[in-house]
Specification:
The chain is α+β, with helices and mostly antiparallel strands. The protein contains five helices and twelve strands. InterPro entries: DUF2993.
């Protein structure tokens, strides 16, 4: 005698689990979609505020994202761009390999950034433009900016290190050479034109109220650090 087995209907508990899984998927999709839209909006605001040709790549830290939306603030936002030009009263500074970290960013439009830290390399070509004098070669190394020119038919070299203040950074001479030999600093400095003895850049009025806080020599340029607080991005 054959048996007939009746199919059991899904229990109420199984249906509840399936419903919760479906709800979780919906929430996750909504979380990621909102996350992507917010990154795109902040990228556009940063591009307008810094007058960038292309919007930077932006990453909003933290998961889940919707809890930050509910709070109305983002704890950590990171951005990166290959090249950024920052206008100063003395001209433009072209920074390469820019990395930025924004903290306490509001979700209102436009966004307000509690603190922004930005770093980028001012390459030798840009420093050459700051020097602005034909016949002067620039090569930055970890010990400072090496300026080379010709004085009275002899090859003269000067090593300068950057010093940062609230409103400017100055290239201060610390060592000198003449015809390939180390000499007293005063020997070379006294022969140089005034604009090469103490180069300086006015950074008192930067975009978004940013301030230069450090300028560290690296091979090929200066790694600048800039910071700002309570910054409002442009819509």
């Amino acid at each position: 005698m054959s048996r007939i087995t009746a199919r059991r209907r899904p229990t109420r508990g199984v249906l509840l689990v399936l419903l919760l899984v479906l709800l979780l998927v919906v929430v996750l999709v909504a979380d990621r979609a909102t996350h992507a839209r917010t990154e795109a909006r902040i990228s556009g605001e940063l591009a307008r505020s810094l007058d960038l040709q292309e919007p930077p790549a932006v990453t909003v830290d933290g998961f889940p994202f919707l809890t930050q939306v509910a709070a109305g603030r983002l704890g950590s936002v990171r951005a990166q761009a290959e090249d950024v030009t920052i206008d100063t009263p003395d001209g433009s500074l072209g920074l390469h390999g820019v990395r930025a970290h924004a903290r306490d960013v509001t979700l209102q439009t436009p966004s307000v950034v509690g603190r922004l830290e930005l770093g980028g390399t001012l390459r030798d070509a840009s420093i050459q433009n700051i020097v602005g004098r034909p016949g002067v070669e620039v090569a930055t190394r970890t010990d400072g900016i090496h300026l080379t020119t010709e004085i009275l038919g002899l090859r003269a070299g000067l090593v300068a290190v950057p010093e940062v203040t609230a409103e400017r950074f100055v290239f201060r001479p610390v060592a000198a050479s003449l015809a390939g030999n180390d000499v007293e600093l005063a020997t070379v400095v006294g022969l140089l034109p005034p604009e090469l003895r103490e180069l300086e850049v006015d950074v008192s009025d930067l975009p978004m109220g940013l301030r230069v806080t450090a300028a560290d020599p690296v091979d090929g340029g200066l790694r600048l650090a800039l910071t700002g607080t309570d910054l409002t991005l442009e819509e």
